[in-house]
Amino acid sequence: MSNFIELVKRGGNEAVKINKPIGVDFHITDKGSDWLWSAFCIFLFFFIIMVLLMFRKPINERLFYYTALAPTGFMMIAYFTMASNLGWTPVKAKYDHVQTSTQAEHPGMRQVFYARYVGWFLAFPWPIIQASIFGKTPLWHIAFNVCFTEFYVVCFLIAALVHSTYKWGYYSFGIAAGIVTSISIMTTTRNLVKNKGNSELMNVFKIFYGIIMFLWLVYPVAFGISEGGNVLQPDSEHIFYGILDVLFLCVMPCLFVVFASYIGMDHIGYKFEAPELQPMAHSVPKALPPKLEKKTKKKGKKSKKSKK
């Protein structure tokens, strides 16, 4: 019985013990890692559901599913990394709002997870792409929106890694990039949706991007009180970011599949023809020319004589 109890104890989450946060004063604990594993499971669950549903559709009707699989898959990997207490670097905090009894200097060193920003870089553009799909936005304008979204993520990453007050400069650049992207969606894409004359499509677009824009506006607040202002402990930071990520990069992309499928690909303006799978024709050997046929017969006779 005692061996079983020891086995159960060893079966818990030991990520923080195995991958120790050496060199930082403010870092995640077992509880923070547990929450990150929970978020990872949510991303994994939605990813599997989307994969299973995708393969039930014909190949020409899978576009919507691709846009949901990408962000959930990328963030699944990012949260696996963070839950394992990997993918981070120590950064000296600018402000002394959070303190620990063991820190050697004030402000202390804070654990900043660059793995989250890598996940954001790969996943953040997809809700923007989904909103653009509603209006069948031209590819070059979608590329413009994606570039400014990536600009937003890169600026926030640099801001998180910078110790001095110059971090707020990158923070401001990132917010400006997000505003430009939102203006682009709410003008160009909205007008394209409006020109389709489908009131149902317009209502779905407004609801979808309204929620997206609201969630996106909360991210700078989360940054300001975590990596930026050093107000929240890393555990609380991950809870805040985790809720946002699950909603913004998991639930909303999957809801897009539901909304877009309800409207219909044809009504949105996308028509893809499924490739026809033709059976392979059996190869019939062609008849040899008369001269070659005579030569082969002569060779066959010679080979028979040589055998005799």
From TrEMBL:
Transmembrane segment boundaries: 35-56, 63-82, 117-135, 142-162, 168-186, 207-226, 238-263
GO cellular component: endoplasmic reticulum; plasma membrane
Protein name: Uncharacterized protein
Location of the protein in the cell: Membrane
Gene this protein is translated from: NDAI0A05770
Pfam families hit by this protein: Bac_rhodopsin
Main location: membrane
PANTHER family hit by this protein: 30 KDA HEAT SHOCK PROTEIN-RELATED, PTHR28286
Bias (Basic residues): 294-308
Annotated keywords: Membrane, Transmembrane, Transmembrane helix
Segments for region (Disordered): 282-308
Family matches, as SMART domains: Bac_rhodopsin (SM01021)
